[in-house]
Amino acid sequence: MDLGKGLTVLREEKQLGEIAAAHGISPNQLRNWKREFMENAARIFNESKREKDIRAKEKELEAERAELLSTIGQLAMERDWLKKISYASEKGYGLMDGRLCSWL
Predict the structure, then answer these.
(1) What integer is the mean pLDDT of 34-43?
(2) How far apart are CA 63 and CA 45, in angstroms?
(3) Which of 37, 40, 43, 67 is the most buried (most CB within 10 A)?
(4) What is the β-pairing status of strands 93-96 and 99-102?
(5) Average pLDDT of 71-89?
(6) For residue 80, how many C-alpha atoms fall within 13 Å in the half-sphere facing its CB?
(7) Secondary element (H or E) of residue 79
(8) What is the mean pLDDT of the chain?
C-alpha cells in the first residue's frame, strides 16, 4: 500500500468501501492493513526512539574521540619539544626567550 492510501485509511477521511473502490482494493484488505498497522505502530515508534538513542550515543562517542585526538596531538607536540630540549642540553645548548642558544 502506498503512503497516500494508507494515510487516507488512517485519517478515516472516507469510508473504507470508498477508498477500496477508488483504488481497486478489497475493503477487507484495507481493514487488515489498518489493524496490522495499529497493532505494530508502537513497535515502529519505539524502534525510532532506539535508533535516536543510538545516534545520540554515536555523536557523544565521536565528540569524545575528537577530544582524545586533540589531546594526543598536543601531547605529541610536547613530547617532540622535550626531545629537542633534551638533545640540545646534551649538546651544550639552552633556552633563552624560547629559542635554543649556545652556552659555549
Answers:
(1) 80
(2) 27
(3) 37
(4) antiparallel
(5) 90
(6) 6
(7) helix 27-90
(8) 79
Q: Give Cα 55 distance to the centre of its chain.
A: 4
The three-state secondary structure class of 94 is strand
**Cβ-contact 33, 6 below 8 angstroms:** yes
Which cell goes with 57?
Answer: 550515543
Task: Determine the average pLDDT of the residues in 29-45.
Answer: 80
Highest mean pLDDT, choosing among 7-11, 42-46, 82-86, 98-102? 82-86
H/E segment holding residue 102: strand 99-102
Tell me 103's DSSP state: -
Rounded-to-integer distance, Cα 16 and Cα 9, Å: 7
Collapsing DSSP states into helix, strand and coil, what is residue 25? coil
Tell me which residue has cell 485519517: 11
Asked whether 24 and 35 are in contact (CB, 8 A), the reply is no
Model's pTM, two decimal places? Answer: 0.46
